[in-house]
Amino acid sequence: MTTTTTPSLSDTYLSYIGGQFTKGQATSTFDVINPATGERLVTLPDATPADMQAAIDAAVQAQPAWANTTAAERADVLRKVAAKMHAEVDRLARIMTLEEGKPLAEARTEVAYAASFFEWFAEEGRRIYGDTIPSSSPDKRILVIKQAVGVTAAITPWNFPAAMITRKLGPALAAGCAMVVKPSELTPLSALEIARMFDEIGLPKGLLSVVCGTDAPALAKVIMDDARVRKISFTGSTEVGKILMRQAADTMKRVSLELGGHAPFIVFADADLDAAIDNAVACKMRGMGETCVSANRFYVERPVYDAFVERLAQRMGGMRMGNGLEEGVTVGPLIEPAAVDKVRRHVADALAKGAKLLLGGETSGEGVAERGCFYPPTVLVDVNHTMLVTQEETFGPVAAVIPFETEDEVVRYANDTPYGLAAYYFTRDVGRVFRLAEQLEYGILGANDGIPSTAQAPFGGVKQSGLGREGSRYGIEEYLNVKYVSLGGIQK
Ligand code: ADP
């Protein structure tokens, strides 16, 4: 591990509140740690509830004028920031790798992906159409208009430090909303870089605030208690999503929740095995397996099971683990020592219950914080459904593989979870493609596709994976109220 810090990072990161980078009311600080080295990258003032309140007050001031701009004006702002993101991709990707750990190439991909939400919603904002509906009386007309919901808030996770913000902020601004963002305390720098770019292109002050602090429940409570915040969009754990949904009830805020998943990845014997392997590796290893759509359980039809596990282990074993800033590294560290602990716990539990290691595993948890939060690509076979890996999100580079005999059996296995975010299946049988599309209880299906996420498609889950959709034309609806106007007195 050679390069660990970058000269472009200085201790000048501050929360962005009401159009100012400011220390706010902070009386303490917190460190952002590089998970590849355990080193401190930056120290930030730890934002307080008063800072969150100031951000909301500023949003309330700024939002009405923004809602009155034209869609073209709002699109212009989003497009300018997207262009900046592309122009600054080297810097942004480097900062992301430093704070989150993902390899630089993946960080670059995320920056482009994050910008794509601004590009998509810049256009989608022009298509906020209403309706006219045939009326029940000759004397009346029925009109439907759509309007910005008002002030909104986003609470975002660390695993996609930029894209999980832009996927919310893009539609919010396009629709005419203001947004207060509370990014993960583990990755505030990418969030503040986004704020800087909006500031540089002259976004009206107060429309966007990025409040960085460690007391997430206290900061969130200010958002949830304030009746002027009309919507909360959250990406993170199911546990926290449930807390926020309960809290939203008191002010009847709209909620969008992108929560945990437990994605099955199903390979039928008639699949294109090369494609299945390529996609399995991509789906499992993107972000070191720390994504809510990462494959958590691999189900492989018996006739191709041996070939699949052997090739999967070979491919995952060929990946290079290290500091994501280094050339050629394809597996970075996990986000923090607790993440490594969870993966170790899942693997130990599986081994204790009879699974076997075909690749990877790790014996010692000593000194993880100092030597970097690394956990090697791991393949477990002889897995069964009593093991934690088949029940909880592992959020790490562990592929747990289970053989199956019939289509009915595997559909049952796949659906036997409280989660319903993403599922993947590989088959050349077109009838089966449709059958499974209808039978699998998930919001996102990758049929012969391990990487389905894209700005123009609706992303979101069913069951305990969440509510609402992000991206696509459905995504902007989450930021719009439907208003019905009944116009009487038409007849003379
Ligand atoms: P993850 O496991 O992906 O870190 P979390 O749900 O813990 O998911 O975190 C996602 C976001 O939610 C982060 O910004 C975090 O600070 C925030 N968060 C954590 N706990 C709470 C809480 N009790 N109320 C509101 N936000 C929270």
Protein model, in words:
This protein has 492 residues and is an alpha/beta fold. The protein has 2 domains: 15-259 and 466-483, Aldehyde Dehydrogenase, Chain A, domain 1; 263-455, Aldehyde Dehydrogenase, Chain A, domain 2. It has helices spanning 49-67, 71-87, 89-100, 104-124, 163-175, 188-200, 216-225, 238-248, 273-285, 302-317, 337-352, 368-371, 407-415, 430-439, 472-477, and strands spanning 15-17, 20-22, 29-33, 40-45, 131-133, 141-148, 151-155, 178-182, 208-210, 229-235, 254-258, 263-267, 295-301, 356-359, 378-381, 398-404, 422-426, 444-447, 466-467, 480-487. It has a 7-stranded mixed beta sheet, sandwiched between helices. A 6-stranded mixed beta sheet has the order 9-8-7-10-11-19, with helices on both faces. Helix 6 links the parallel strand 8 and strand 9. The radius of gyration is 23 Å and the shape is globular. The site of adenosine-5'-diphosphate has 14 residues, from helix 7 and helix 8. Adenosine-5'-diphosphate binds at residues 155-158, 182, 184-185, 216-217, 220, 236-237, 240, 243.
List the domain count as a whole number: 2
CATH class of the largest domain: Alpha Beta
What is the helical fraction, as a range of percent? 25-40%
Unreliable residue runs: 1-8
**What is the chains' assembly state?**
single chain
Radius of gyration: 23 Å
| Unique ligands | adenosine-5'-diphosphate
Can you tell me the overall shape? globular
**Category from helices, strands and their pairing:** alpha/beta
What share of residues are in beta strands?
A: 15-25%
Q: What name is given to the CATH topology of the largest domain?
A: Aldehyde Dehydrogenase, Chain A, domain 1
Q: What's the tally of helices?
A: 15
CATH architecture annotation name of the largest domain: 3-Layer(aba) Sandwich
Could you name the CATH homologous superfamily of the largest domain? Aldehyde Dehydrogenase, Chain A, domain 1
